[in-house]
Amino acid sequence: MGSKIWKLGFLGASAVAFNQRKSLTVRPTRSRFLLQAEQLKETKEVRPAPRPKYATDQCILVVGTTGTGKSSTIAKYTKQNVVVGDHADSVTKQCQIFPDGSSISNPVWIDTVGYDDSSQVDDAESFKEVLKFIQEHRLLKIKAIVWTILPQERKDARLQRQAEFINRFREEAIWDNVIIIAKQPGSFSMHKACQGAEEAAKVHCNNLEDIRKLGFTYLDDSIPDDFKELLLSLDSEKRKGMLYLTEEEVYERINTAIESIQRPVRVIFEDSECENCGVQGDKRLLSDYCHMEQLFQHPEPLNHYHPKELKSYHPLPTDNYHPGVLKLTGGPNQNCETVKNVLFAMTPVMGLLRDSTEGIKTGVIAGLTQFVCYKLNEPLRFTFGCCGGEENSHGCKTSFACCRTAPDTSGCMYTYPCCSGGPQAVGCTRKFLCCGKEEGISGCEVVCKKCEKKWGTAAGECYKKQHELRKIKS
User: Fold this and answer.
1) Under 8 Å between Cβ of 208 and 198
2) How many alpha carbons lie under 13 Å from residue 336 in its C-beta half-sphere?
3) Beta bridge partner(s), residue 382
4) Cβ neighbours, 10 Å, residue 293
C-alpha cells in the first residue's frame, strides 16, 4: 500500500510540474545590464527619496523567472493579498513592497520585476528598477534574497543570468544570504531540483556548501481535489517527504531559513568615473558602451602660410656709375682766344694812334699770344658732367644697379625667404588653424575613432567594451 501511495504521489507531482512548465515561454533577452548610471542620479534629483514608511531598513528580495512562484511565496509568508498569475505573462509589472504581517519591524518583502515576462523587461531594466526602488525607500540592507526557480539539474543561460543579477548586489558576499526555493520538485530530491541553480551560483562564489535550499509543492487549489484529499490523508511526514506542504509548513520552513541568516548585506553605491567616456556612477549600473579607440585629429582645416616674414632685398648687386651726363669738352682755351683776338684787333689801332713802334709791339704780342693759345688748346673729347671722367672711365659713385640707391639702404623689393615668393604669393606651407601646427603633426584634439565624439565625453551606444574606471574620492 505504501509503495502505491509513493508511486501515486510521484506521478501526481510530475503531472502538476509538467502543467506549470508547459505554460512558460522562453523569450530572448537583450544584452544584459545596459544601464546608465546617470539615469539613477536623475531619478534621485527628480524624485527625492521619501522618508521611510516602515519600521525597518531591511528587505527580502524575491528574484526569479515569471511562473516560478515569487508572488505565491510572498503571499504565503507575509499573509498579504498578492495577485498570483496562472499563466506565462508576468503579474508583477514593477517592484512592490509587502510588509511582514507578523511584525512591522521585520524585513519587508519586495516582489521584483519578472524576467522574460510579457512586457519584455530585460535583465538590465529589472536590475535598475530594483536598485532604484530599494534606494528610494531606503531599504539598503538585504536580509535575504529568495531565488525562486523551477527544478533543473543543469545550469542554463537563464539561471546564469539570474545568478549574475544576484551577484551584482554585493559580489560574492551576497550568497551567504541567498535562499533557493524550487517550485514543485517532482523528483522529491532537493539536491537535483536545485542543482542547476547551485552550479550557476558557483561561477560567482565557490563556497556554496551551506547555501540554503528549499523546495515544495503548495497544497492549494492548483492540485485536483481528489489528489489533494489523498495527500492530506497520508502521514504528515510521508507527505512532507514528498515535498507537499501546507501554507503553515511553507511559512515555517522559509522562516527557519531566514532566521538562520546571521546579518543582512548592505548595498553599497561606490561612484567611479570612466577615463574614456566620462560616465560616472556605480560600476554595476554603468552602460556596456564606451568609446572604441583614441584618434588624434584637428578640428579646424589647413591654411596656407609663409613660415618666414617678408624681407626686403635688391634684385641686382651694387656697381659704380656716373650720375652726370656725357658732354663734349676740350678745344681752344676760351680765355686765351679772347686775349689773342683783342690783341690782334688793337694792333692797327695802336699803330694809328701812336707811332709805328707801338703797333709793331702790339702785333708781336698778338703773335706770341697765338702761339700760347695753340699750346693751351685741349683735344676734343666726351666727359661726364659729375666728375669730368671720360666716357669709358670707372664710375664715380657706388649704388645698387636695380634702384640706384646707396649700398646702406634697404631693399627695393620684397620676398618671402622661405620660398622666394613675392608679397602676393600663396603660402608655401600649410598649418592647422586650430593649433598652428604644421601639416603632418599629430592632431591637437582627441576623439573616438568610431563615433568621432570628443574623448572623455558621453559615448552613447558607440562600442561595447569595459570601462577604464577610477574611483571618485568623496
Assistant:
1) yes
2) 15
3) 328
4) 11
CA distance linking residue 169 with residue 156, whole number of Å: 21
Whole-number pLDDT of residue 93:
60
Angle, in degrees to the nearest 10, between helices 2-22 and 225-233: 140
For the segment 160-195, what is each residue's pLDDT rounded down to a tens digit? 989 988 998 888 889 999 999 998 887 667 888 888
CA gap 154, 197 in Å, rounded: 8
Banded model confidence at residue 6, pLDDT cuts 50, 70, 90? very low
CB atoms within 10 A of CB 277: 27
Q: How far is 218 from 345, CA to CA, in rounded Å?
A: 170
**What mean pLDDT, rounded, does the chain reach?**
80
* C-alpha span between 448 and 463 (Å, rounded): 10
pLDDT, one tens digit per residue, over 366-405 is: 777 777 777 777 787 888 888 888 888 888 899 999 998 9
Please check whether residue 204 is in contact with residue 173, taking contact to mean a CB–CB distance below 8 angstroms. no
Distance CA 446, CA 23 (A): 54
Terminal-residue alpha carbon distance, the chain: 71
30-48 burial: b if 16+ Cβ within 10 Å, else e:
eebbbbbbeebeebeeeee
